[in-house]
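Consider this record:
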Amino acid sequence: MNAGQSFRLAIKALTTSKMRSLLTMLGIIIGVASVIVILALGNGVQGMIDEQVDKLGINMMQTYVWGRGDGSTMDLDPSDMYDLVEANSDVLTGVSPYVSFQATLRHGDQKFDQTQLYGVSEVMFNSDTQSTMDGGQKLTQGRFLSYLDVARRQNVCVIGAYLAQEAFGGGEQALGQTLSINGTSYTVIGVLDRLNTTTEMAAGGSDDQIYIPYENALQIMGARYVTLYVFTSTSGETAAQAKAIIDGMLYDHFQGDEDAYYTTTMEEQANLINAMMGVVMGVLVAIAAISLLVGGIGIMNIMLVSVTERTREIGIRKALGAKERVILSQFVVEAATTSALGGVLGIVLGYIVSMAANRILPMISSSIDVTVSPSFNSIVVAFGISVGIGVLFGYLPAKRAARLNPIEALRYD
């Protein structure tokens, strides 16, 4: 009996008892579908991270400063950071203090209590990607803050889509209009695009924000306390060198107190997230593998039942001269066919769930921009594992069938 005949017999055995065959394959179907969806989700998250890194810029670094000098005042001034950039212009290209502050924001009789207010420099807008370096937002109208705006402490601002809509009826109407921050008028010079594109914009959301020159923000705060600086290096390759320069300066400034500051590059952040995602994906795949194990045990169980049911048939075939290897291959092929068919159905189910996830995830949160798309490699791996499980767990029943004594088998009723 050749492989083709064994395969046809396997299909016949499966179709003879359809419900039993489906229940036997259920563990394989669920396991394969789970593995495909999990790997597809992991690929989607990886793609989202890479896209976000490209938006923000691989040459970006963030420095957090908590040290307070003599213990009572913050003696590190933003000008110190600008001097550092100027002294290392071959590696560092810019810096932006990132100041989050509270103030009274008004437009006429309207008061915006939940708007997020930030003080930044022109560096916060990446000229290469034409997007902000904290959220990756592009401009729909006007321009971002310029060097002169920051240097001259101009009363200008860039606003989010929500603020533009609620205060002025849209981005086009917002340009040139004014908002009041603590009683001082600020002219709108730019409007950012919507970050939240799937649900309605809301007060205090990702689109309810305003940027002004950082010196103006510090003046409103009444202090020069800055805990976050955003640096840019000449390229992604020089980011590590730039980080070493920044940390070296801060180490000397805070007299060796390494707990007073912390610097991280975009590459480090991406690698950390990827490492965490790798652990999570590994755990989820391991959980999904339990379904494959259960499916394999189910195949072994049903094959043992099949051997028992077909004992007399095996005895007749052996009495007519069938060799052990022929009987063995027949039952192994049958187990592998059962598992392979389960794998195919699992792949189809995995595709359906992945497509459904692409529709459901954006409904859960507009910030989830993940494309769940199964890769060819994951499909091949999942299918190969399903076939391998069939062969592995089908071998023992097949071996038992091949070793049956033909005389005892013929006597079996």
Summary: The mean pLDDT is 81. The two ends are 26 Å apart (CA to CA). Residues 266-309 form the longest helix (44 residues).
